[in-house]
Structure formats: structure tokens, C-alpha cells
Amino acid sequence: MSEKICEELKALLKGSQFNPIVGLTANELETIRQKSKELSFAEKAELFINFSTYPGTLLYDAGSLFEAQIKIDDTNSKNRSRPLAYIKFSDGYRASIEVIDILESVRNDATLIGHPAILFAINYWQKILIWARYIEQRDIYDEAEAADEKNKNKRLKFQLSGQFVENAKRYLDAIGAALLEGARRKSIPKESALDLQIHSLNIDAKNTYLYVAWERLAVRHMKDKEGSEERVRRIENFLRQLPFDVTLEELSEFAPEMQQCGIIEPDITISNVINFLKADGKKFVFTKTDHKSQRPRWKVFRNTFTQWYFNKKPSTVEEYRKKAKKQGLTEPPYKPSIFGTLPETNVFQFLMELFTCPLAKISPTIECSEIEADLFRFQDLPNQKDTK
Fold it and tell me: What is the pTM for the complete model shown?
């Protein structure tokens, strides 16, 4: 339901402009105000719009995301020992509350360590450790047993302040471990990794050095009494003459035989092909009995190259590709910077990616009155019978 609302509001916002009512009618503005209340923090972030102006950029927060209030509950409980973040949206009467598991959020996605709710918790714990000496400052009441009720209360206050420091140390250690685990959890399965690598080679394409080499193994291209090494050398010479990194106009300048190969995709290099023909592919090049080519069907040749290139058994490649299909990975592969270029991003785009990444909730969003939201502890809110 919220996904449908989100799409509806984004469609409305496409007509927004830089003016006091952002180019929308009163009804459209009211629709956004009312329906955005039903969206989560991540969904509200999808409604961000930025206007590029002189001398700067203006951000329109259509879902009133920046009005969210964040509180941290990191106290010990017999029911849990995990720190929680409490994100509340309120109109002054009714509150919508997301109760977030801080550590689990970072374990699910390491970049969420930069989310405001989680950064606020880190900032809170850091300040406790910075001021630990002040918080734990001992006084005369720590030297001996308290003599009266007033002194007992002061001693209790010191004991509680010490627990805050211990919690801060423990949770900062835990969030550091969660950061590494978050990156590991997002690691794609080995089966999908292999399948993506195979696809990246364009191994099924016909304008590759591999396919042309297979074509050159046909009997019509062979010479009598020619040995294996001579055949491979002649194939290599032909491959090196093929049109690579040229325009269509430049392609017309090549010999007709070369033009038929098209503009070559270089993902599979000439060296890859020649090394294959000298190793596992050698059986396709030559036979001593009749000096004829042993060229197989293209599918067999291509699969044998794949197995050789990735050093996998045929059954392993087949099994991996079947599992990869079930895993259904659709995200394009990430490639680190090459040739000395540095990774870069647009600040607004990265902010959108971070804010629209879902946090780990311990329960569905809680709807309750403003009074109830302030009365109950965060850990108890999901269990309140009168919350909806």
C-alpha cells in the first residue's frame, strides 16, 4: 500500500517548481501532506526534490522527513541487550513511530552507519566516553557506606552513570564489528559472481576473438600437412588484423573478410584465445591421424573455453549457473576505479541512496497518541495492546 502511495506522490511532485507553493495546487499539497504520513522514513526520503539555483541548491522535503525526532534507548533490560533508535513523526496529536535495531541495521548494510538515527547513537556514546571522567567523578559518598537516604540516592546516581559508560564502550565495539559484518552480509554468492563474470565476457557474442578463432578452425581455412603450432600461429595473425576500436566508417576500409567479423569486442583478448588453443582447446585444432581440424559445435567450443578460463569443471559451471538463476541477482556489478581515477558521487544522490535504504525494524510502524509515545519505553511500545 505504501509503495502505491509513494508512486502517486512522486508523480505529483514531478510538476513542482521553485516558488512558495512549489508549483502545486492547494489540493495537491494537502494530498502530499496527508498521504506522506503513512510512509516510512525511507519512503519519505524518496520524495526529496532539489532545485539548482544561483547561488546554491535548495532541497524540498516534501514528506517532512527533517521533522522526525530521534531518541536512543541503550539501557539494559532482561528482555534485550540491543540498542534501539526511536524515530517519531507527529502532528501534535498522533504519532507514527519506527523502532529501529541499530546494530542489525548496520549488519544488513554497512553504509547505514551514516544514517542520522545511527549517527546520533554513535555521537551519544562518543560524548559519554569523552566526558567519562566527569560522569564518574568520585566524591566522599564513594569512600564509605552512605549514612542516610540522601547519600544512598547519590551513590545510586554514581552507579547508574558508570553503567552508561560501560554501555557506550560495549555498543561502540559492537557497531564496529557490525560494520564489517554488514559488508560481508552484502557479499554476492559465488554462483552469481561466476555467472556475472561469464556474461561480462560477452561469451555468446559473435564479434569476439573467440568466435572468429572458432570460425578459422573450419576445414576450409586449414592447409594440408600443417601442424598444430602453425595453425595456431596463423589464427593469431588473423586475429591481430581484425577491426578493433574503430568507427563504422573506418570499418569499410578493411578487407571484406575482415568486415564480416564486425567491430570486435575485446573482453576476451587475443592472448586468452591463443593460450586456450594451446591448452584445453588444442584438441580442437589438430589431429595427427588425418591433419584435419577437429572443430566442434560452437556451443561445445564456447563452454570448453569457459571451463578453462575460470578453471572449473563442466559440472561445476553448469551447477553454478543454475543456482545463479535462482538467486536472481539484478544489480549491475560494481567495478572499482581503474587507471588512477577516483570514486566519486553527487552529494544529493548519495544522500538519497542512504536515506532510502530501509533500516531494520523490531516491529511494524506503531501508530499511537502523542501522549502514549512519550510515556512508554521504546522496547515496550510494540507490545502495547492499545497501540495500532
Answer: 0.74
Instruction: Kindly report, residue by residue over 40-84, the tens digit of the pLDDT.
Output: 999 999 999 888 887 788 899 999 999 999 999 887 554 456 899
Q: Which residue has the cell 567519562?
A: 132
φ, ψ (nearest 5 deg) of residue 60: -100, 115
Cell of 222: 586449414
Distance CA(65)–CA(228), nearest Å, equals 70
Q: What is the pLDDT of residues 342-358, one digit of tens each?
A: 888 899 999 999 999 99
In angstroms, what is the C-alpha Rg of the chain?
32
Biggest distance spanned by C-alpha atoms of the chain: 111
Amino acid (1-letter code) at residue 128:
I
CB neighbour list of residue 145: distance below 8 Å, 6 or more residues apart:
none
What secondary structure does DSSP assign to 348-380, as a single string? Answer: HHHHHHHHTSPP-BSSSPEEEEHHHHHHS-TTT
Cell of 135: 560522569
Question: b/e map of 189-225 (b: 16 or more CB within 10 Å)?
Answer: eebbebbeebeebbbeeeebbbbbbbbbbeeeebeee
Alpha carbon distance 41, 98 (integer Å): 8
d(CA 354, CA 112): 7
Mapped onto helix, strand or coil, the DSSP state of residue 87 is strand
Return d(Cα 146, Cα 168) in angstroms, integer: 28
Which SS3 state, helix, strand or coil, does residue 132 take? helix
All residues at 6 or more sequence positions from 124 whose CB lies less than 8 Å from its CB, including other chains: 72, 74, 168
DSSP state at residue 384: -
Say what the alpha-carbon torsion angle 291, 292, 296, 297 is, to the nearest 10 degrees.
170
**Contact at 8 Å (CB) between 276 and 268?**
no
The Cβ of residue 360 has, within 10 Å, a number of other Cβ atoms equal to 15
Instruction: Report the distance separating Cα 114 and Cα 129, nearest Å.
Output: 20
